[in-house]
Amino acid sequence: MTATPNGYVTVIWDAKAKAGREADLKAFITAAVTPSRNDPGNIDYEAHEVEGRPGSFVIYERWESRAHLEAHLAAPRMQELVPQMLELTEGSIEDGIRLLRPFRPAH
């Protein structure tokens, strides 16, 4: 992931709960939102459940810079949360991460 030309970084994370762990993953994500919003450099951090697809979630994050995102990911609480998250989700965390780069019309 790299920062966009104007500095900020946007991340989308798609997560799918393991069968029978849908409510657990939703509670886990819910508990993680406020601390992440309070991390330095966070612009936006929103959790969404995909309508019509129980157990499918999307996290939308914006950070002031790549350094802020990396500090968030390296925070001790995040290092503790990752193994717990892996117990609740299908696949790897990295498989669900996408970086967005904004663009606008020239005029």
TrEMBL record:
Domain (ABM): give its ranges.
9-97
The GO terms this record gives for MF are: monooxygenase activity
Q: What Pfam families does the record tag this protein with?
A: ABM
Write the record's keywords in alphabetical order, separated by commas.
Answer: Monooxygenase, Oxidoreductase
**Record-given protein name:** Antibiotic biosynthesis monooxygenase
Origin organism lineage: Bacteria, Bacillati, Actinomycetota, Actinomycetes, Streptosporangiales
